[in-house]
């Protein structure tokens, strides 16, 4: 599964992007949550604390906002992501359509052709953007 991430500053200007492939032996929705976990890890490594995450996977966004979870592999991954949220002073999750998330979707598609993760950085400070359904803005 290809994963694309774009980071924007609070005025919407491009800061950085990253692409990688996540080997996935799980269902697609579980792979999407693994992608979110990867994104949270990257954002944490960059030292960002105020984050708005936009994803085009409504199931994941709804699960991240939910207060109760059923028992499943998908929800086990969601719980891990929720534990990672303590690393941020401000974090929100919003659903956006794939057309809104088009650039990150393109990065995710192209990432499958790379043999290793790719990162491009233009500036240093930001709030955040990402996808295979994820955009952190």
Overview of the structural elements:
The protein is α+β, with helices and mostly antiparallel strands. 35% of the residues lie in helices and 25% in strands. It has 4 helices and 6 strands. The strands form 2 sheets. The protein has a 3-stranded antiparallel sheet with strand order 1-2-5. Helix 1 (28-45) runs parallel beside helix 3. The longest helix is centred in the first third of the chain and has 18 residues, at 28-45. The protein starts with a strand and ends with a strand. The model is unreliable at 117-137 (pLDDT under 50).
Record the SSE blueprint.
Layout: E1 2-8, E2 14-21, H1 28-45, E3 50-55, H2 58-65, H3 73-84, E4 90-95, H4 102-111, E5 118-121, E6 134-136
Helix pairs in contact: 1-3
Compact description:
This protein is of the alpha+beta class. The chain has four helices and six strands; from the N terminus they run ββαβααβαββ.
So how many helices?
4
Distance between the termini: 22 Å
- Compute the number of strand runs: 6
What is the average per-residue confidence, as pLDDT, rounded to a whole number? 75
SSE pattern:
EEHEHHEHEE
Q: What portion of residues belong to β-strands?
A: 15-25%
Radius of gyration: 14 Å
Q: Helical residue percent?
A: 25-40%
Rough outline: globular
Unreliable runs, pLDDT <50, ≥5 residues?
Answer: 117-137
Helix/sheet category: alpha+beta
Strand order of the largest sheet: 1-2-5
Please outline the major beta sheet. 3 strands, antiparallel
